[in-house]
Amino acid sequence: MGPTAALEFCKFAKFKPETRVGNMTDQELVKLSDALQTYEGFRSPDPTCLAPLGAEPLEKGIQRRFEPDFMAVVQRTASAYSGFPFVVEMGIAYGGKIETRGTTVYRFANRIPLLYDEGSDVVLKVVKDTDWNRYKVKSDSAPFIIVSHICSTRVPYKTVGKENVADRPEIEKELRLALQFLSRKLSGYMSKKGQAEAAKKRANLYSKYLPLVAQFCTELSGKKKEPNYEKMIKEETAINNTDENKEVEKNG
Amino acid sequence: MAKKVTKKVTKKETKKEKIDKSKKLIQALKNHGAQIYEDLENGEFPKFSIPNRSISNIIYDKKLRQYVLGTNASLRSARNSSQLRSFTQLLWLAFFANKLTHEKKSSTLRDVYYSSQAFAVDFEDQQESDNIIVDLEAVLSQPREDFFVFPEERSSIFGDLTIEYTIPGYEGKTQNLSSHPDGYAIGPSMTSAQLTDTSAEMVIAIEKGGLFTRFVEEQVDKKFKSIIINTGGQAPRSTRTLLKRLHDELGLPVVILTDGDVYGEHIAMVIKSGSANAAHLRELTVPDAKWMGVWATDIDKFKLPTIPMTESDIKRCYDLLKDPRYEEGLWKRELEVFIKIKRKAELEAFSKYGLTNITEKYLPKKLEESKSF
């Protein structure tokens, strides 16, 4: 730590820079420890030693594997727990060639897939804590997947088998923020999709029933020719088409 | 003789009235069709205005002596995507009713449900099509029988009444309703027939088929110069229509004989003043009809064997007490006696004193009594 950062910290912790640690009272030591914990000015440990995937390769990977209708990825900035730097990367995808139903989580740690003991992993904990209804996703039947990658100089595995990551608060927080960010994007997609589906249903309804209405009222009123109602159907479907175009633009 | 002449005059009038009624219906249907046609032609979404049939919009009209609908109406528009389907169903039914009326072909509620399938207008179940039928009744304020949709027949009529059929294939054919002792079913051909001639001086409506047969056997029709009608429980609307016609067209008083319980009392009330269910319809009631018995007070008076009321019977009594029609007179008095004695007696209870007791003792006494109220 350089002298500038040290002075900044002393100011924050309300210690005189000259104070020697060896002369501190017990009370002062506790105060110092607390200050070290709460001070936010320290720089994160250098993450350049980490090898995250990067958003783009992650996106390409998901695309190639699932060809989803919707996809979003995020790489969080580096963070640290107990002095170890780590980076969380996450991707979410919906529809397309995803064949599983409900939440399926693909876990990676330092580019290694974690296959077993999924239930006790911190990623699963975060996913399960999420109220998917808020994001308009039916978590038990929707075709969607989550890919998570934790990359660290020391991944805190729970067991020697290195199959599940322990729930360190710092990691959990990063995972949560990443998932929330992605879920919000998914939610935007879902509501658009819902609207588009409703609009399509509506258009179908009009093209099914208006001809019948025309037929019956023509016979009922004793007229020979059916009224010119086609333009009404066209108008209804036209409105919907523009809606759908917008949809594609945004996602593309 | 003079009486018969007057009746024949009425007959001509009713015939004219009937044709008018049918014409009016066809015209009303046509107007709706034309309005919708015009809307479509102008690129506007057509709509129906349907009187609201919820309880909050049902009012008792003291002058008409029946339940009527208030002024609340809801719009069913083709613009609203959630109403488009039921709008189409309603229009289809109007179209179908028009066809039935033109061809004078009758159909049942079930027929309507199946007929819709030929036109790609799908009803999920019969309940849905039944509801639409009531909607159309409300829109036209005419009962479904007017557009030839009939429920299944279960009531019958017997007595010296000559009718002349108007349905296709039987036009002009006459029939005297005293020639078959089991009685004649009250169906579409009966309700639409001309009532040409009768020597009867009143109509007796009975709740039960068994008693109807007894009355025919005992020649109540001749002894009391009456037409006997079996309502088969709660009188179907075609039967109520016929009762009204017998009363209005032939000037015959109507008396009603039911079981001595709360349901019987209500059967009489429905003939007299209609049901809340049919508040959107007029002309189904016989306000002058008289409930002759069996009254709660008759149970003690005639020492009838009784059975205890069930809890739901008693609950029904209290429910009816809240009905404005039961607020006064005989209706309230009898209900209160039922509640007090908590027992009921069926029409068959008279058999304790011999099979003919009801026709020989009870009936004449009550008929005499009924003249005074």
UniProtKB/TrEMBL annotation, chain B:
Domain of life: Archaea
GO molecular function: ATP binding; DNA binding; DNA topoisomerase type II (double strand cut, ATP-hydrolyzing) activity; magnesium ion binding
Oligomeric form and interacting partners: Homodimer. Heterotetramer of two Top6A and two Top6B chains.
Chain residues that bind Mg(2+): 207, 259
Cofactor requirement: Mg(2+)
Organism per entry: Candidatus Nitrosopelagicus brevis
A GO CC term assigned to this protein in UniProt: chromosome
Class of this enzyme: isomerase
Family of the protein in this entry: Belongs to the TOP6A family.
EC number(s) per entry: 5.6.2.2
Summary of the function given for this chain in its UniProt record: Relaxes both positive and negative superturns and exhibits a strong decatenase activity.
Name of the protein this chain belongs to: Type 2 DNA topoisomerase 6 subunit A
Catalytic activity of the protein: ATP-dependent breakage, passage and rejoining of double-stranded DNA
Residue span(s) of domain Topoisomerase 6 subunit A/Spo11 TOPRIM: 202-367
Alphabetized UniProt keyword annotations: ATP-binding, DNA-binding, Isomerase, Magnesium, Metal-binding, Nucleotide-binding, Topoisomerase
